[in-house]
Design brief:
- 67% of the residues lie in helices and 0% in strands.
- It contains 6 helices and no strands.
Length: 102
């Protein structure tokens, strides 16, 4: 059902009257627990969600927040504390190399 909403909202030739009906239908589906809000938030565009009052952030702000979160998740650097790591492997390698050259 949610796929129907997301596909229908993407039509560019939809009149404002039909869009209003679709918004009312989507609100009703959420209020009557037919479709969870989370599913709409996953599959529908930000502007439609804001018109349906399923998100409290405006569409443009939601898009920029989504970009920031995705960028942070993608480029977040993992940090290692090398002083607390096991140094047995490196020490053993140094000893083996020292023994080989002597």
């Amino acid at each position: 059902m949610c796929n129907f909403y997301s596909a229908y909202v993407l039509q560019l030739t939809m009149s404002s009257d039909n869009r209003g009906r679709l918004i009312k239908l989507a609100r009703w589906a959420v209020e009557s627990s037919l479709v969870p809000v989370r599913l709409f938030q996953e599959r529908c565009e930000e502007e439609f969600l804001w018109e349906c009052e399923m998100v409290k952030i405006k569409a443009q702000e939601l898009k920029s927040k989504e970009v920031r979160v995705n960028t942070r998740l993608l480029y977040q650097q993992t940090k290692f504390n090398l002083l607390r790591e096991e140094s047995e492997g490196y020490a053993k390698l140094v000893n083996e190399l020292a023994a080989y050259f002597t």
